[in-house]
Design brief:
This protein is α/β, with parallel strands linked by helices and 208 residues long. It has one domain: Maf protein (Alpha-Beta Complex). It contains 6 helices and 7 strands; from the N terminus they run E-H-E-H-E-H-H-E-E-E-E-H-H. A hairpin with a 2-residue loop joins strand 4 and strand 5. The radius of gyration is 17 Å and the shape is globular.
């Protein structure tokens, strides 16, 4: 029997990544239906905490299994920033890049702010981290994490991916996350690793 997971995200990049991972595992990932409710506050200090909060919250309104994630970038030279604030990094700082088009995307603004914070820093080791949680009826049934290590470039490369992908270099490939195929990304990415770690637990849920 195929397991259907309702993904608690409106991010098309995340939905695409999860769909690729789920398809290879014989699962199905669908976006949450329009519930007409406000999202929960994501104030936990860890990715795992935020993933659990979202999974528990949305699973109270959906019949079935809800998959929630929290993921982002950790840069060693910045003490782990942007961390759980990855999606809101520039907004939290009130950062507005000089001479930039006022209509630039949130991702571009975050990338520019990250580069401004790293100006003059040569050692730029970083990692992407993803935490997943699956819940039903307000109870978390399983959870997993994954990470991938890399480096932050000075300039973006590639047109694929989203978020910080154009700046995130995978040393063994000498390519950024925005330059690799979806299959490659699933094989090495933090979301792919987290999903694979979740699979044995999901298989256990099938017979319940």
């Amino acid at each position: 029997m195929t397991v259907t997971l309702y993904a608690a995200t409106t991010n098309p990049g995340k939905l695409r990544d999860f769909s690729v991972a789920a398809g290879e595992a014989g699962c199905s990932v669908e976006p949450l239906p329009d519930l007409g409710i406000s999202p929960p506050a994501e104030n936990e200090p860890t990715f795992a905490g935020n993933a659990r909060v979202k999974a528990q919250y949305y699973s109270r309104f959906v019949q079935g299994l809800v998959l929630a994630d929290d993921s982002g970038l950790e840069v060693d030279a910045l003490g782990g920033e942007p961390g759980v604030r990855s999606a809101r990094y520039a907004a939290d700082a009130g950062y507005e890049p000089r001479d930039a088009d006022p209509g630039i995307s949130v991702d571009v603004r975050n990338n520019l702010y990250l580069l401004s914070r790293l100006r003059g820093i040569s050692v730029r080791s970083a990692r992407y981290r993803c935490a997943l949680a699956v819940a039903r009826d307000g109870t978390v049934l399983c959870a997993a994490e994954g990470l991938v290590s890399g480096e932050i470039l000075d300039t973006p490369r590639g047109v694929g991916g989203f978020g910080y992908d154009p700046l995130f270099l995978i040393p063994q490939l000498r390519l950024t996350m925005a330059e690799i195929s979806l299959d490659q990304k699933h094989a090495i990415s933090h979301r792919g690793q987290a999903f694979r770690a979740l699979l044995p637990q999901l298989r256990g849920l099938r017979i319940k």
